[in-house]
Amino acid sequence: MLNWIGEVTITVLNTDGSVKDRIIIKNDIKTVGYNMFRDALKGLVADLQIKYVAWGSSSTANTKGQIKLGTEFGRKQITSQTNGSDGVLNSTTYIAPYEAISSTIEELGWFAG
Fold first, then answer.
1. 42 contacts: CB under 8 Å, gap ≥ 6
2. What sign does the dihedral 71-88-81-11 (CA atoms) show?
3. Is 62 helix (H, G, I), strand (E, B) or coil?
4. Would you state the pLDDT for residue 45?
5. In percent, how much of the chain has pLDDT > 90?
6. How confident is the model at residue 69 (pLDDT cuts 50, 70, 90)?
7. DSSP 3-state assignment of 3?
8. What is the pLDDT confidence band of residue 18, given thresholds at 50, 70 and 90?
9. How confident is the model at residue 2, as a pLDDT?
10. How far apart are CA 81 and CA 91, in angstroms?
């Protein structure tokens, strides 16, 4: 099995559009994601598009078997996607300040299919 790990760059903007903060974190693909890729190669899954980003407050250790966030308190649809350099996909979602203040964000998840 591939051990697909990459980096996610999260850019936080001020209300005027200037960059407030930029955070780079490591991410990985969960077992359910690997199985979705496998099934797509067999012709069983036609839709692999990333559709949602979710955020939550759980600081529990990350595991390969997860299928949801530990404590999800928000989920939004991806509003745009563009290709970056080789192997890079830029996904954009606007999370308003009032949507992110109910707790400290400790976890993020992207959901496809």
1. none
2. positive
3. coil
4. 84
5. 33
6. very high
7. coil
8. very high
9. 61
10. 4
Per-residue pLDDT at 70: 92
**Taking the CB of residue 113, how many other CB atoms lie within 10 A of it?**
14
For residue 101, the model assigns a pLDDT of 73
Residue 70's CB is within 10 A of a number of other CB atoms, namely: 16
Separation CA 52–CA 77 (nearest Å): 4
Please state the three-class secondary structure of the chain as a single string: CCCCEEEEEEEEECCCCCEEEEEEEEEECCHHHHHHHHHHHCCCCCCCCEEEEEEECCCCCCCCCCCCCCCEEEEEECCEEEECCCCCEEEECCCCHHHCCCCCCCEEEEEEC
* Residue from 73, 68, 66, 64 nearest 104 by CA: 73
DSSP state of 86: T
Q: Quick one: CA dihedral 24, 25, 28, 30, positive or negative?
A: negative
Give the pLDDT band (50/70/90) at residue 98.
confident
Collapse the DSSP code of 109 into the 3-class scheme (helix H, G, I; strand E, B; otherwise coil) and give the result: strand
Residue type for position 6: G
